[in-house]
# Entry
Amino acid sequence: MTVELPGGVPGIDVPRLAAWLSGAVPDAGRISGIELIAGGRSNLTYRLDLTGGGVGRHVVVRRPPLGHVLPTAHDMGREHRVLSALAGSAVPVPRPLAMCADEDVIGAPFYVMEYVEGRVLRTVEDAADVPAEQARAISEQLMDVLADIHLLDVDAAGLADFGRPEGYLARQLRRWGKQWEASHAAHLHALAESAHAAPDGQVAAAPGTATSGATAPGAATSGAATSGATAPGAATRDVVAYAADYDRLFARLAERLPEGRPPAPAGRSAGGTLVHGDFRLDNALVRLGPAPAIAAVVDWEMSTLGDPLADLGLTLVYWTESDDEERLSIPVGSTVTAAPGFGTGREFAERYAARTGFDLADLDYYVAFGCFKLAVVLEGIHARFLQNATVGEGFDQVGESVPILVERAHRILDARSPWPGRA
# Structure
């Protein structure tokens, strides 16, 4: 008997995946549907509908992105391991079901996890039906979940060797610096290719393109922003000034690297904690109702052992308030926290400090570091977009956010405050 399989989606070889599932996931049944879950800008996430024995259920498949992939990024094995360790802990996560390291199945390593019912709250519009009191409760629960991650007993969870907390920030700075170079090189290569289709001395910039650091072949070399046929929404900048902005930020972060061991829970002799690496509200599934809850934290691809304040700093970069027009202009991460009822970034930090007991005297550094890290991530995503290697919508304006984040980091360091110019 021949079973008809659903049509494929980018990044999934459905027949090969179906054959692998039958041997790896107990009672998997057959694949009756497959859908790319919208919203992810890095690893790709798919919902599979499985049918067997008259019963239907859903599972989720995670795989690396298509196209340009940075070294050390998108490690499916690490994500699967941390989910396995956290299952049943105070940190809510989906239960992992199986891991596949064989790239012959769908073209890359991937893993399968249970499907968790819940809503992703990303934009202010997503919160239109969320009462203010529930929004407040969700804010506080998210703060508490981040504290629970950082207070986890990593030894008991089997994660004592999951990373090297000593020197974490210095390694992060080097790593993201190298990834900037790789992504920016891919970005410039895409611009060079576009130059072949433009008049002499001009570059046809893709939507969201911000040129930096060097000029592509055929581009104007006067030190001014590139000119020519720019698509709608393109952002061009003085290439010399843009390179200087980034290089100066890298130098400032290196100069102010915190000394000593990273913070750790009371009673832990070694410094550091488990860190998520990209903690924000839209990397969580939320259950609304009289007792709203964080149902699961997802997207653990950058997790390791390190400095917990780096997690907090990046979370505060994502945290958006209604009067922060600049942050609202960055089309990445959750802006839903600008809706009525959600707490402020300052309240998030204060509640976190009360739960963990960690000293936040250098919080401005960590928020500036978060701006730097997010700028590098977005440069990588933008490079894939220029190579037509992204799947889904919303990538065309990502490139414009990179210089905004670099400039924002400088202002934070100048003011020695995570909230420059804010009361």
About this structure: Residues 167-260+361-423 form one domain. Residues 203-240 have pLDDT under 50 and may be disordered.
